[in-house]
Amino acid sequence: MSKAxxxxxxxxxxxxxxxxxxxxxxGLQEMRRNSVNLFKIFGNTYARLDFISAGMxxxxxxxxxxxxxxxxxxxxxxxxxxxTAYYRATIRALQGLYGLKxxxxxxxxxxxxxxxxxxxxxxxxxYHYVLKERANVNVGMLDMFWSxxxxxxxxxxxxxxxxxxxxxxxxxxxxxxxxxAHYTSIEEIAxxxxxxxxxxxxxxxxxxxxxxxxxAVGSPAVKIATAYERTLEFLPVSRDEAAHLYVSEPQRLTxxxxxxxxxxxxxxxxxxxxxxxxxxxxxxxxxxxNANILSNGNPEHLNQLFLDFPDARFVLLHFGFPxxxxxxxxxxxxxxxxxxxxxxxxxxxTVARQVLDECLDLVAVNKIMWGSxxxxxxxxxxxxxxxxxxxxxxxxxxxxxxxxxxEQALTIAQRIFYQNAMSLFRLNQDTKMVTGK
Length: 437
Fold this sequence. Notes:
Blueprint: H1 3-14, E1 18-23, H2 28-31, H3 38-43, H4 47-53, H5 67-81, H6 85-98, H7 110-120, H8 126-134, E2 137-142, E3 158-160, E4 162-163, H9 165-169, E5 176-177, E6 180-181, H10 186-192, H11 200-216, E7 222-224, H12 239-246, H13 255-276, E8 280-283, H14 303-308, E9 314-317, H15 324-333, E10 337-340, H16 344-347, H17 349-362, E11 368-369, H18 377-400, H19 406-424
Parallel strand pairs: 1-2, 2-3, 4-7, 7-8, 8-9, 9-10, 10-11
Antiparallel strand pairs: 5-6
Helix pairs in contact: 1-18, 6-18, 8-18, 11-13, 12-13, 15-17, 17-18, 18-19
């Protein structure tokens, strides 16, 4: 393959539009609730987790707007993390979107850079500019941690994903993020959708109503992210046993009884997803927290579920990293199991290249897709750049090794970035957005 052909193919692959299968991008108005500056950008990226892992106190990231006091703390820990993929991805976004010239944040550039960030977020077209014009993302599938109040976004940019955690984990469950309990509980969902939690049948009817309602307004999938709270193994439980457990006060259930009720509800959610023709995305692998039980996210826990629900379509997010072999093996074995590179290029471009190279040896190409897992548009941009480079590098290497030709490589890239997601999630461009009750 000539150098010119190599460069031409890289340019063609880099221009393919993308479907972001999974993100958490906060709305523009939500970002604007407090002043937006350089360190708020860092605080909303995964780079924050590396700073905390290096020893920086998690609480100092809630610093409000005292930038002069925060910079020395940031500067102290930056040398420990500036080699990590998380940090480098954030720098990549700052270079591409804000004109940063250096490879790190310095005494000389942080204030000017922060002012540029503040001005950017005064633009009403900032999200459209970054996502459409710079990242070339056609549409993003948005998981907002199940918040009825905040679930309102530009339908030209996003589709809402139904996060099923509160439906599965049930009464008294409150999601905590960054130490704050401020996401929607099943009780709030019942209020928003006129549901009745007094009886088990009322609970099941609420779950059915919510899933149907979200599908009606354009939700293309159901997501299960309960590995953050418990194992992904959902064992069979009879309806009678689950009903018996439900009539007890939640605080009186033993941990085993609580788990059994959750097992039933997870399987019930999957059953309704099948009825509604919705794929089920599942968080597998590593967590976006600085402390958790890693093995909870092992996709091998899902094996029995795949056997019991052959009509469901399951998407293993994050390739199960670090349980990559298990995720790829499950996708190879089961016709109804798909894999998603979401987050992996941000975790490590090196790992992402290895994963995709192996996956293409083992898994049908119509079962692989990509997402950003970003919390702000800067991360979507960085994730998109990294994903394009990873996929392009892998495909070019396979061409050089004689494993495929240029036409096949182009087809594979189009599938990973766009066609597979459009087909699996049955996306279209004219759905409305859900805004709660």
